[in-house]
Amino acid sequence: MSIRQAMLAILEQGPMYGYQLRAEFEQRTGETWPLNIGQVYTTLTRLERDGMVEVVESAAEDGSDRTHVSYRATESGRSEVSEWFATPVPRTQPPRDELAIKLAIAVTLPGVDVATIIQRQRSATMTSLQDYTRLKRTGRAANPEAPEDLAWSLVLDSLVFDAEAEVRWLDHCEARLRRAAADRPAASAHATPTATPETSDGVAR
Amino acid sequence: MSIRQAMLAILEQGPMYGYQLRAEFEQRTGETWPLNIGQVYTTLTRLERDGMVEVVESAAEDGSDRTHVSYRATESGRSEVSEWFATPVPRTQPPRDELAIKLAIAVTLPGVDVATIIQRQRSATMTSLQDYTRLKRTGRAANPEAPEDLAWSLVLDSLVFDAEAEVRWLDHCEARLRRAAADRPAASAHATPTATPETSDGVAR
DNA sequence: CGACACATGTAACACGTTACATGATTTG
DNA sequence: CAAATCATGTAACGTGTTACATGTGTCG
């Protein structure tokens, strides 16, 4: 649902055609979320159907006489954009987190080696983190003053913050599982139920 | 794509029918990611088509003579699950982050009050954080020893880590924007173009 | 009995990806 | 000129949500 609004928002800069829209989007987000060109056209069609944009056949501005199928945001479109900016992204129904789902299920199944899953995941994520920092050094020399480069840089930071949070969470999970295992040591290998005393957890909460 | 694997993984516990699968899933993830019952059936159909599960008409175990349409994981299904657990969730194409996209575009558009967007978002996210901690206190009395409750608790922690990372990122963005504004002070309020020396145009790019 | 939860589906739609078709323009 | 890139689409498929239809079991 965010592509639609993003495209509409970019149209605030003026009428554009499909390819241009994709270029503008990717310039701001880097190679992070490549935007499928097919989807650009289908989304534009739906936006037009919903009265958010209208077609403006425009000559290419580069002098050639080629015309493109450009789109311009309508009044409705512009108001949808400002509402998008004015409303915080809700956390009521966060997108499903595959890693969280995976671990949540893993800890409930017998015979699944959760510790290994965690270690592999952390190692993969830390590799990504290194890639991100490498990207930040290499990054788009250009001029860091330009808003598009600032945008891309912020997106990159967002990925870093996210990956760091994931690593922290993995450490946290590891610790909690270790404590849980310490409380009832037999449960791992040969499945001895050990009758769990009272409620004396130690798992906190 | 994660629901499919999650359902398949849960079937490792033994044959189940639609409603049961949903209940097992939601018990592990709390009310975080409610699983649509319609999707359960369509996903089961596709899993069967792909040879991952097979139907086992089973009598309900609670004594009643009612039979349910239960599914059991096949050999292929089981191997897909173990591969799922063995492979880290890749960060190569992370799911699109609506907030990051929104801010990335916002900073490149003239006349958008990014500072306000950030403040509103942070305030909304911190409210969610409070809800999470309240949930952690209230949480599912039951017994925290039970693996399902541990799972749900880890998921909740994941939400917290995520929200905290978001707040940190918002602070980070705010700081960077303040620095950028300090470097070229005129750009904010009354849209004074200040003629940006060399490349002219003001629209940049 | 009537309301409600359980249980199994189907249809319609939105969104997203991959792949293909078809031209025009640019460039080695 | 041939190949690559730009540009605009369409078709097929997977996934996800919402809504509807239909029937069974339970409980006040």
From TrEMBL, chains A, B:
Residues 182-205 are annotated as: Disordered. Pfam families: PadR, Vir_act_alpha_C. Residues 183-197 have a biased composition (Low complexity). It comes from the Bacteria. Residues 96-178 form the Transcription regulator PadR C-terminal domain. Residues 7-82 form the Transcription regulator PadR N-terminal domain. Gene3D superfamilies: 6.10.140.190, Winged helix-like DNA-binding domain superfamily/Winged helix DNA-binding domain. PANTHER family: NEGATIVE TRANSCRIPTION REGULATOR PADR, TRANSCRIPTIONAL REGULATOR YQJI. This is PadR family transcriptional regulator. It comes from Nocardioides hwasunensis. The lineage of its organism: Bacteria, Bacillati, Actinomycetota, Actinomycetes, Propionibacteriales.
